[in-house]
Amino acid sequence: MRNKVYIVGMGPGREEMMTKEALNVLNQADVIVGYPLYLKLLGERYQGKELLSTPMRHEEERCRICFEEAEKGKRVALVCSGDAGIYGMASLMYEIGKEYPEIELLVIAGITAASSGAAVLGAPLNHDFCVISLSDLLTPWDKIEKRLRAAAEGDFVIVIYNPSSHKRKDYLKRACEILLHTIEGERVCGYVENIGREGTKMGISTLKELKNKEVNMFTTVFIGNSESEIIRGKLVTRRGYHVEKQK
Amino acid sequence: MRNKVYIVGMGPGREEMMTKEALNVLNQADVIVGYPLYLKLLGERYQGKELLSTPMRHEEERCRICFEEAEKGKRVALVCSGDAGIYGMASLMYEIGKEYPEIELLVIAGITAASSGAAVLGAPLNHDFCVISLSDLLTPWDKIEKRLRAAAEGDFVIVIYNPSSHKRKDYLKRACEILLHTIEGERVCGYVENIGREGTKMGISTLKELKNKEVNMFTTVFIGNSESEIIRGKLVTRRGYHVEKQK
Asked: What is the pTM of this model?
């Protein structure tokens, strides 16, 4: 049997939001590799295992550690927050994996912030949607702008990942300004901070208000589509089922 | 404490792909409500509980059953495949819930087919993406076309839900024709059938080939973006991390 590396989505952080499959993989692993914060989120329960990490921006090195440990015959799990395949490490593992063809790669899906944040806000993603990251570390800003415009023109619900960071404090404002060319200022929006962790906070606002909202890097932002509405204080987008209006 | 209905995402079907939270909610429920197929997917393990279902197209009635059972003081879980908030029952529950303000609603996120299908195919969603359903039961086809065009113009990876049904055998072909106005025929694509169930099948093709591919209603289709590629037989979209080319 070939040696394997499991690339595991941890979901938002709380163990209960991991799948049974992901928990089984971590339980059976000899080595768990991850960004230090994620290893910390896993808590005390994996202290008996070998925990290896590299700092931010050292993702390539982190991948190589996985392959090298797997070559030694160890059972390796690489953990990522959310879903490992959505802005996670899965694609980099495949790229670097070209050099390690004898090691098999398996992605274990996890709950991404679009899903977990939507559950907190109500049901904003019940129809077609886009997910866009505002991080321009690895993507040119004009490409991000183009996608925001296309998403608005397609009347998609829009989920924004990485809406802010220390160096990009005004990015959400810039994104809202672009969206406001197409979308009315009263469009309903929502945001969730620290999904599935201590101190989860949600808020509902209009797009106009969102433009001036300061959010942190642990926030996921949702822009409704033309059919989204606020029901019982939650952000809801109809799937299209038409319920007769109540008298 | 208010009576509650939990709206639970089951993920693709296998119990191991449910979150621990979802499994706990089902274990503690008195009544589990769902579409008959989903109750069947839950298997034998919940036989001790009251299992209630309504046929397809009777979604509104299914929601009302949940509220009525909760009014009796029972612990109710409504199950949906994938994520209950993504083309699931969550938004309809909020709409009908206007009539039952005393019942609290809680959405428990699940793994949607975009995540679980991506894990099977490799790492196609590692950058910005759109999710579009081709079902025109509840959405006019011209709106679907508009979204396909916008998604192609934004260079999003595109995930297609409900690509086909008995009555809509040529919808994927029609969708591909629209995409081919903007996207080259050689663009890499993938599809997964019966994700997380028995008989999971995946395939890789070009967009041109996909146009003539017959898929069934249990298939999820992925159209790569301009940076997607095939690595080790898998569909991979770079996050943007640039790995130096190998000699």
From this structure: 0.95
